[in-house]
Amino acid sequence: MQPRSSAGEEPATVTFGSECNGGFADYAVTGSSDAIRVESGLSDVELASFPCAFSTAEGMIQRCRLGTESVLITGASGGVGSAAIQLAKRRGAHVTALTTAAKAEELRALGADQTLDRDAPLPGHGFDVVLDLVGGPRWPDLIDSLRNGGRYVTSGAIAGPIVELDLRTLYLRDLTLLGSTHQPANVFTDLVSYIEAGDIHPVLAATYPLAELRAAQSAFAGKTHVGKIGITVAD
């Protein structure tokens, strides 16, 4: 949930499990402006897999105005990365997913046009856009993989938040660097319209009852899955 900021105020982002408790609750409340109706035959746990991962990915894609271009997605087997594959393909982009060999086939089934091993060399000046959820020591390689005039957008740094940039690379190559956290109100309503149209689908690797949350977290930490791990609550 993301309350709208008043005129002159900085954008505010508030989410369950981060800025407020409620991510692992049987019941939770939110403001009516943050409750969006969705008409879908998907189950509750399938619908629950969309809000955080898909809205983060859609926010990144809208922030960089991705079109029918070449895009590299890092961390592509995670919840946000696998969502970004579907959402980028929906826009007609040519998607390259950075992943491991064990997960490559599943990502191609989601729509990736090709996959690269996460330790493999990246093509120089090969992409119009990089959607990055990883950061870390390979960050300069990601920048080098952008074509002149390319756009880089990040919403995560799971491999490390501190990177080094030669400013001459930024201005001589006319690159655009973008951060993406706050989402305009239309991002989620757009996402609901994609769900209702059947343009995107949930990627659930497994589900656990709330009482087995510890096991779910252990499975998540193992990083052997693709997509999301769902938690079910009693009816």
From TrEMBL:
Which parts form a coiled-coil structure per UniProt? none
Q: Which keywords accompany this UniProt record?
A: NADP, Oxidoreductase
Domain annotation Enoyl reductase (ER): ranges: 1-231
Q: Does the keyword NADP apply?
A: yes
The reply on keyword Oxidoreductase is yes
The record, for Pfam families, names: ADH_zinc_N
Q: Which PANTHER family match?
A: QUINONE OXIDOREDUCTASE PIG3 (PTHR48106:SF18), QUINONE OXIDOREDUCTASE PIG3-RELATED (PTHR48106)
Q: What is this protein called?
A: Zinc-binding dehydrogenase
In its UniProt entry, the species of origin is given as Hoeflea algicola
